[in-house]
Amino acid sequence: MKASRLGLMTGVALATVAMAGAAFAQEDVTITVWSIDGANQVGPSDTFSAEFNEMDNGINVEYRILQFDEIVNETLRAYATGNAPDIVSLDNPDFALFSSRGAFLDITEMAENSDVINTEAYFDGPLNSVMWDGKLYGVPKYTDTIGVFYNKDAFAEAGIENPPQTWAEFEEYARMLAEANEGMYGATISARGNEEGTFQFLPVIQMSGGGYENVNTEGAREWLSMVKGMIDDGVMSQDVLSLGQWDSTGTFNSGNAAMAISGPWEIDRMVEDAEFDWGVTLLPVFGEGDERSSALGGFNLGILSTTEHPEEAFEVLEYFVSQDDRLFPEFGYLPTRGDVELPPSGIAEKDAALEVFQEQLQYAQPRGPHPEWQKISKAIYDAEQAALTGQMTPEEALSQAQATIDTIIN
After folding, report:
1. How far apart are CA 345 and CA 356, in angstroms?
2. Has this prediction a pTM greater than 0.85?
3. Domains of the chain with CATH codes
4. Other Cβ atoms within 10 Å of 300 Cβ, number
5. Helix residue ranges per DSSP H, 208-274
6. β-strands 147-151, 278-281: how paired?
7. pLDDT tens digit string along 123-169?
């Protein structure tokens, strides 16, 4: 009798353990994803995260929106304290900061065995931004660049037949088109004291023969003097010193600026909001036939090396990559892969703008890559701010930036 009772109790205990084990096995794994998508508009990361959750495959994505200015430092703090997300989306020049320090998971072998991720399909620039020391530490998310949007109606009314091809023409047309009493600025840019400022200013340095290692060029000094003169004369708004690209281009969309330097992420909003005929042209050069440049933008996705669920995080990454064909039709972002076709939208202005940005990408140059890009970029946008606010002359501001950059690099 005792033996039977013991056997029964043992059986109940084992059944209880088995049931508990089954319940535990069925519990979803949570993968945290951090990105800026959703801060200003619906984007890929927030959209794909929500879709992935609907698949009910045992993996739950917990999505968090961070601001552009916060995401790098917030991720660094989280990594240092053991509270890092599983996946983070970072501006491409910031990737080397994490990859070089082992903060990202090496996914080289996982990608080689993947039926979704094919590294040979990526364009060289975006792919190089997720590589470090010959290893793959993430996947390019999307790419972009910048050009000049212009108000065709305003140009026609002023008798200007073609968009500006040189910076001299850019200034000339901006001054012709500015109507301060009517709330119309000649042009708008983002000269904000953050990465957006560097994103728009660095191409000027590059097309004048410099780069992030050599910023004090004659062309860069001339350009800063030109922009400051337009700000002082009301041809550009003083707000360009504080506005990000999204808000700055909003000035153009509302009909309050005749030109705006911005990127393809604005096309869909422009199609919907702009109540005038508009077009896009390549970034101006200093002289006819001079070397062109433009910014290489876009974000990457990486799995933090501290993740407790690398396989599940990689599965989320694969789903994001599998949706690359939706990047431009739904979000206005250019894919980083040559095997993703961009079908015509049927909207003439949108398709014409896309052709210009695809041509502009041929001249786009990277920011860095360098593990200390944040410090280098700060030296560049600080110089721009100092020159445009009149705290320093362009020569003084760029000389100071160059000295700072020399210390960082050497």
Report:
1. 15
2. no
3. 30-143+297-340 (3.40.190.10), 147-295+357-409 (3.40.190.10)
4. 27
5. 218-232, 245-253, 267-273
6. antiparallel
7. 888 888 899 999 999 999 999 999 999 999 999 999 999 999 999 99
